[in-house]
Amino acid sequence: MAIKEYEGDVIRPPQPPSFLKWIRENLFSSVLNSILTIVLLPVVLFLIYQVFIWVILGANWKAVTQFPMLFAVGQYPRDQLWRVGFILSGLIFILGVSWGRWGGLLRSISLAAGGFLLVIAVLPVQHPSLTLNMRIYLGSNLLIALIGYLIGNKTSIKGYLIIIAWILIPIVGVVLLAGFKSSSMIPAVQTTLWGGLLVTFLLAAGGIVLSFPLGVALAFGRRSSLPVVSAFSTVFIEVIRGVPLVTILFMFSIILSLFLPVESRIDRLVRALMAVTFFSAAYSAENVRGGLQSVPQGQIEAAKALGMGNFKTTIFIVLPQALRAVLPAIVGQFISLFKDTTLVVIIGINDFLGIGRSIINSDPEFVQLRTEVYIFMALVYWIFSYLMSLGSRRIESALGVESNL
Amino acid sequence: MNISEPIIKCRGVHKWFGDFQALKGIDIDVYEGEVIVIFGPSGSGKSTFIRTINRLEEHQQGEIVVDGIELTHDVRNIELIRMETGMVFQQFNLFPHLTVLQNITLAPIWVRNWPRNKAEDKAIELLNLVGIPEQAQKFPGNLSGGQQQRVAIARALAMEPKIMLFDEPTSALDPEMIKEVLDTMIDLAKSGMTMIVVTHEMGFAREVADRMYFFDEGRIVETGTPDEIYKEPKEDRTKLFLSQILHH
User: Fold this and answer.
1) What does the CA dihedral A223, A226, A228, A232 come to, rounded to 10 degrees?
2) Taking CB atoms and an 8 Å cutoff, what residues of chain B touch A309?
3) Distances in Å between the alpha carbon of B107 and those of B57, B104, B119?
4) Which residue from A201, A401, B12, B96 has the fewest beta carbons nearer than 10 Å?
5) pLDDT for res A6
6) How far apart are CA A351 and CA A396, in angstroms?
7) Given CB atoms, is A386 within the 8 Å cutoff of chain B?
C-alpha cells in the first residue's frame, strides 16, 4: 500500500458542491421546492424547445435579410455610401490608435467592431448588397484597427492629439454626411434621406456627448449662489423632467418652426437632437447633483486648506468623486437615451425602428413577418445597450468605485 | 528668529453660528517656531478658532493677521494665507480618488505651479519623513488610519507652509496608531515648525508645547506653559477638566 500522505491539520477552503449535490440543494431542498421544480421544469423546457423550433424552422427572416442597407443607413444615396464607410473606418482607426495608446477596454471594443465587420465580410451567402467591393471594405476594417493600434502603441503619439481627433471626427463626419450644395464631390444629402442605425447612432451619440456637459453645467447651476443662474437651472430641469419626451420632440419639431422665420429653419434632425439632448441633460443634471451632494464637506475643506480656489477644488476634487459615485446612474441614463431615440419615429425621422416599421408596412407579405423584424430589432437594441452596460462596469472596476469610496 | 512681530496675531475674535456665539473674543499671539496646544471640552470653540485662522470659518468681529496678511473677504488674501498654512484634520480628509503620491503633489503642482518632477521628489522626501515611503502608489482607502493621517501631514507639508494647524489629529485613531502620528508631530515640532494643535494628548503637550490655552464656552479660560497648567492650574474650571481627562 502506498504511503498515505499526511493531511493533518491542513484546512482546505470549502469546495464547490458537485452537480448532483447542487441540484439537490437548490431545486429539491424542500417539499414545496420539489413540487415547483417538477411542475416548472417541463414548462420551461417546452418553451425553450418551441422558441428553438420557431427560430430554426418556422421563422422567415426574409424581411430582415433583404434590406441590410436600409437598416444600416436608411435612404442615404447608395452612390454616396463611401462617406458613411469613410466615417466608420475613421472611427475604427481612432479607436485602434486609442487602444494602442491606452489599452484596456478599448482593446475589446476595437477587436469586436473590426471582427464583427470581418464576419459579415466572409458570410458564405449570396446577397446583392454583399458585393466583392463591399466584402473587401468590411474586411479591411480589422486591419485598419490594427494599423491604428500599431500607430498608437509603437509611436510616441501624444494623448491630447488622439482626444482632439475624437472631438473632430464627429464634426467632420456630420459635415461629410451632409455635404455641400455647391460641391460636386460631396453634394448635399438631405437629412430626410438619412436613416437606420446611422440616425440612431447619431442621435444617441450626439445626445450623450452634448447632454453630459450640459447636465453637469445645470447641476452646478442649480447649486449656484447666483439667484438667476439657480432659478434658470431649476426651472429648466423641472420643466423638462415634468414633460414626456414625446411632447418635447413635438415641441421642437412643430412649435419651434412656427416661431422661427422660414429662412432660419433648423434642420429636422438637428431639432430632434436638441430635444433628445435637453431631455437627457435634465436627467443627467439631477444624477450629477446627487453625486455632488455625496462628496463630503471635509473633502472641500481639505482642498481649500491647501490653497485651492473654487474652480480647482471643483475640477480636481468634487467633480471626479461626484461622477464616480453616479457613474452607474449616468450610464443607465445613456442607455435609456439610446432606446428613447426610437421616439423620433413619431416626428417622421426614420431611425432604426422607423426603418423596420416602414419595411413591414411596405408589403403585405412583410406584415406577416413583423414578428421576425421586431425580434431582430429588439436584439440589436439589446446588444448595444448591453455593451454600454458592460463598458460601464469595466470602467467602474477600473476606477475602483467600490473599493476606494 | 524674529521675536518682534507674531506670525499669527488674533485680537478680539468673535464668531456666531446663527444666534449661538462660538467665540467670544479670542486674543492669541503666536511667534515663529512656537508650538501652541489648545484644549478644552467639546463645544468650547477650540476647533472653530483654529479653523478661523485659515478661514474655513469666517470670523465676524475682531482681527486675524497671518504672516503679515490680514484675513478679510479678499479671496486673494485668503488663498495666500492658505498656501502658507497647512492643516491636518480629525477625519484625515485624504482625497480617496487619488493615490498617496497624487494627494501630496496635487496642490504643489496646481497651486504653487511646481513642475511635476519637483513635486514628486518633494513628496517622496516627505513620505520618508513620515515613515511610509512604500505606500506612494496606494490609494488612501488601503492604508490604516495612522498611515492616512501621516499622509495627511505630508500633504500639508508639501506646500512648504510656515504654519501647521492640527485639528484633533489623533481623535479618530485607534489607540495603537496614536503614537505613530504623535511621533511624527513631535519630530515636526522639534524641527522648528510653527504649530497650533488642538488636542487632549497631554504627553504630547508636555513634551513640545511652548504654551497651552484652555478654552471653555468660547473664551480662553487659562493660559500658561505646560508646567504651569499641569502643576498649578489657577482656575477651578481648568482643574476640573484636567482631573477628568487625566484620571478617566
Assistant:
1) -20
2) 75, 79
3) 21, 7, 9
4) B12
5) 57
6) 31
7) no
How far does B92 lie from chain A, in Å, by closest CA?
A: 9
Cell 463611401: give the residue: A82
Complex ipTM tops 0.90: yes
- A-to-B residue pairs, Cβ atoms closer than 8 angstroms: 72
Which of the two residues, B124 and A169, has the higher pLDDT score?
B124
pLDDT above 50 (res B49) = yes
Distance CA B69, CA A214 (A): 40
All three cell numbers of B126, joined, read 516627505
Judging contacts by C-beta atoms under 8 Å, the chain B residues touching residue A405 are: 96-97, 141
DSSP bridge partners of B37: B197, B212
Closest-CA distance, A400 to chain B, in angstroms, reads: 8
Answer yes or no: do A302 and B89 touch at CB < 8 A.
Answer: yes
**Which pairs with CB-CB distance under 8 Å and at least 24 residues apart come from A131-136?**
none
Does an H or E element contain B167, and which?
Answer: strand B163-167
* Helix (H/G/I), strand (E/B), else coil: B84: helix
- Residue B72 predicted with pLDDT over 50: yes
A298, A308, A404: residue with CB nearest B111: A308
Residues of chain A with pLDDT under 70: 1-10, 263-264, 399-405
- Arithmetic mean of pLDDT, B132-157: 94
> What does pLDDT average to over chain B?
93
Cα→Cα distances A393→A191, A213, A331, A404, B190, Å: 35, 21, 9, 15, 49
Rounded to the nearest 5°, which phi and psi values hold at A180? -125, 145
User: What average pLDDT score do residues B58-72 get?
Assistant: 92
Q: By the 8 A CB rule, do A202 and A174 touch?
A: yes
Question: pLDDT tens for residues A195-243?
Answer: 899 999 999 999 999 999 999 999 999 998 899 999 999 999 999 999 9
| Adjacency order of strands within the sheet including B163-167 | B85-88, B163-167, B194-198, B35-39, B211-216, B219-224
Q: How far, in whole angstroms, is CA B49 from its chain's centroid?
A: 11
Q: Which long-range contacts (CB under 8 A, 24 or more apart) does B136-140 make?
A: B136/B99, B136/B100, B136/B101, B137/B99, B137/B100, B137/B101, B138/B99, B138/B100, B139/A400, B139/A403, B139/A404, B139/B96, B139/B97, B139/B98, B139/B99, B139/B100, B140/A404, B140/B92, B140/B94, B140/B95, B140/B96, B140/B98, B140/B100, B140/B103
CB contact under 8 A, A298 and B54: no
